[in-house]
Write the structure tokens for this entry.
Amino acid sequence: MLNKELADFFKSTTAQLGINISDEQVEKFSIYGDLLLEWNKFMNLTAVCEEREVIIKHFVDSITIVPYIDRQDSKNVADIGTGAGFPGIPLKIMRPEVEVVLLDSLGKRVNFLNTVISELGLKGITAIHARAEDGGRDKKLREKFDCVTARAVAPMNILLEYCMPFVKKDGVFIAMKGASEEDCFESALKELSGSVISEDVFNLPESDFTRRIICVKKTNFLSTKYPRKAGIPKKNPL
């Protein structure tokens, strides 16, 4: 996917974020991009198909959370509703020492994720086929992660119920939101033992797309009544 011109473009945009990317990492992203566009011909993985747009709106956008993961000194991360692997796979490429779990509700997407993991030779990363509401009750996953992230999955009050069950006490949930979204989630924060510790809004390099990143610290263990059964958080948000 990435010829020299596109590779240089990718390096320059990540540099604008203050993040260095190696030639080896660029090569992994190139293979990832090829797989994404090839699989997208027969299943719905992305509406973004132009190569520069993939670089900015998927790869660079996902990489924006790297400083937040570094700041928390996270040893493990869960990406909830990962879809085609964003931001979890780019995070793994950039920080191979971090253990990553990718959770998605569609089996076909999990098959794609496993193919990417295999083709890139990634270690310490697992793709799981499950709904967030079910995964959040799994003893192997519940309150096991230093950091949990989700990108463009649902309104913030719903997203909190999907994601906070996976976060350890004193861990952090990083929500990647659009700047235009008007979220009212104070009651969900209170109910789910969350406290906003930072909120940043910025434009992606070489783009007019604005990203909003909200970091929520988990201040206590979660009540066993959350998450509620599959479908209820969306139908009846906190």
Notes: The beta strands are 76-80, 99-104, 125-129, 145-151, 167-178, 194-203, 210-218. The mean pLDDT is 94. The chain has one domain: 64-235.
